[in-house]
Amino acid sequence: MNPQVLVVGGGPSGASSAYWLADRGVDVLLVEKKTYPREKACGDALTPRAVRQLVDMGFEFADDVHKIVGLRSYAGDVMLEMRWPEHSLYPNWGATLRRSELDGRVTGLAETRGAKVLQGIEARPIVDDGELVGVDLYGDGDDPERITPEYVVIADGSLSRFGRELGTERRRDYPFGLAVRGYWDSPKADDGYIESQLDIRDKDGRSMPGYGWVFPLGDGTVNVGAGLVSTFKGWKDINTSKILAAYVAELPDHWEIDGDPIAKPIGGKLPMSFSVGPKSGRSWVAVGDAAGAVNPFNGEGIDYGYETGRLAAGVIAEALASNDPAALAAYDQALIDEYAAYHRVARIFLSAIGNPAVMRTLVTTGMRSQTLMEWVLKVMANLLEPEEKGMVEKVYAAIEQAIDLPGIRKYKP
């Protein structure tokens, strides 16, 4: 067994990479350390961007996939309902499905295209003088099998032990997310709207920079979570489990949540805004959470996992066809072209909301305008139309100017 390409990790980015590589006729092996189904600290929501990628891979949106038509957003005593916008590239709907179900099904799609998938296998890089020269595959109680693929896709998540062995690390000056989620029973789990609370507070009533969510799953349960960003004073002392408990205690009555969660909530850190680098080496690329591909505006990572996996697959296929490893540099440029301007503004936005006064102004003023908030939803979900790309820099510059306040950190490219 010595594939042309090894994919390390079977989450959204790994499954997408394997699917699109196999679709191009590449001999690809995907290894997943755990076995499906496995739990992930995730909101389980699929934005229209994610739905588009799944549709392209032939994913069947069966009855167990709950359709979402829009977002219901709260801040203090104000509530707005906003439907997903009409778009020329993306559907006007999203969905929810537990990651414990989603990842195995998408990896199965990769298998239908010809990818080989091994579960319960840990991949460890063999590094010589800073270069990846091989990979050892470990199963339970077995001696490792060493393989020498031509290229490796690093898709092992936000901690990315594989990537760290090759020198990837998170930029410490970039923000990251702190998130926790749990599942509760709710008779309103068939609601067609996901819900966010923009004014979350700790047990002492202090406003926290971030948001809480309730994502109905259509199966009698809801995913309830809270996410914060590391741009406010004292974030190191925050206990996210206590923030979640305080948020659950103040949930709107219509969810009819009463009692303890179905299982103990889980959480973790989210590297955001492509804060992990380098993104590629002589024979490897990092995708999804392993590259920090999480949207700083809303904490969404599933869609960007699918998208970066697809981008990486195309670049690797070209490198194989041309027999030129230098072709991998096109991956870094593709990420810059697609995401750089958007994420630059998002980083500044996160720095701004770390200031309680700014956060209070944005929430209390912005939530009073339905038109403004619908536009904000479009920006935060990264759903601008192709013809709007020409005005992206102007739009983002206007946002930057609007939140260009004293004390707001500016990030170098």
Your description of this structure?
This protein is of the alpha/beta class and 413 residues long. The protein has a 7-stranded mixed β-sheet, with helices on both faces. A 5-stranded parallel β-sheet has the order 8-2-1-12-20, with helices on one face. Among the domains are: 5-43 and 57-62 and 99-172 and 274-340, FAD/NAD(P)-binding domain (3-Layer(bba) Sandwich), CATH 3.50.50; 342-402, no CATH class. It is built from 10 helices and 20 strands. The model has no long low-confidence stretch (mean pLDDT 88). The protein is globular. α1 runs parallel beside α3 and α2 packs across α6.
Radius of gyration: 21 Å
Structural class: alpha/beta
Q: What's the level 1 CATH class of one domain? A: Alpha Beta
The CATH homology group name of one domain: FAD/NAD(P)-binding domain
Task: Give the gist of this structure.
Helices cover 31% and strands 24% of the residues.
Provide the fold topology.
Blueprint: E1 5-8, H1 12-23, E2 28-32, E3 45-46, H2 48-56, E4 66-68, E5 70-75, E6 78-83, E7 94-96, H3 99-112, E8 116-119, E9 122-128, E10 131-138, E11 145-147, E12 151-154, H4 161-165, E13 169-170, E14 176-185, E15 193-197, E16 210-216, E17 221-229, H5 240-249, E18 266-271, E19 276-277, E20 284-286, H6 302-322, H7 329-353, H8 356-366, H9 370-380, H10 392-402
Parallel strand pairs: 1-2, 1-12, 2-8, 5-15, 12-20
Antiparallel strand pairs: 3-7, 4-7, 5-6, 9-10, 10-11, 13-19, 14-17, 14-18, 15-16, 16-17
